[in-house]
């Protein structure tokens, strides 16, 4: 947990420890990034809680650095809870976003959801069947969990991959934002659908913007034929 407010950091750590987590903390961005780098070599962590407003290096900068060498789930935290903070954090590579003050049970649910998404080989409810080929070079293999574009493997985060697998189950069929939120994020409460929209934007940048259609007011569909 990278959080400069000692009270929040310690209270959250104690609460999570009681729920069975082991929590390590850092109080500024640079310290947290270096701790994360060291742990990845020695004793890798399972997830990162990352505050937006941090001294030495803000949370968005830290997240971008982390995404250069790791796909470990990142949940951004912000006291402001502003839409711009959320979009900026997600666009930097975060998997989810939570505004402070937050309920510990909600944080626990979010953590369990992102951790499930990293266990992709067991997530066989998302996609089945044979690899999904695309006439212009996009291939999605739901068994090996590999996506290639023109024979080149595409680097996707677990969240991006799970969204793509869900859309590829029935190319051309619209999938609602609510269904994506439930299946990928595991939410059973109302949430901001911009979380999904930002991840889809990131996915489009990697596989081609025209491959995923937006159906206004409803959701998304994967092109059943190459554009």
TrEMBL record:
GO BP field: regulation of DNA-templated transcription
Modified residues (4-aspartylphosphate): 51
A Pfam family matched in the record: Trans_reg_C
Known DNA-binding region: 130-224
Annotated SMART domains: REC (SM00448), Trans_reg_C (SM00862)
Domain OmpR/PhoB-type: 130-224
PROSITE patterns on file: OMPR_PHOB (PS51755), RESPONSE_REGULATORY (PS50110)
Annotated InterPro entries: CheY-like_superfamily, OmpR/PhoB-type_DNA-bd, Sig_transdc_resp-reg_C-effctor, Sig_transdc_resp-reg_receiver, WalR-like, WH-like_DNA-bd_sf
The entry's keywords: DNA-binding, Phosphoprotein, Transcription, Transcription regulation, Two-component regulatory system
Domain Response regulatory: 1-115
Gene Ontology molecular function, alphabetical: phosphorelay response regulator activity; transcription cis-regulatory region binding
Tagged with keyword Membrane: no
Name recorded for this polypeptide: DNA-binding response regulator
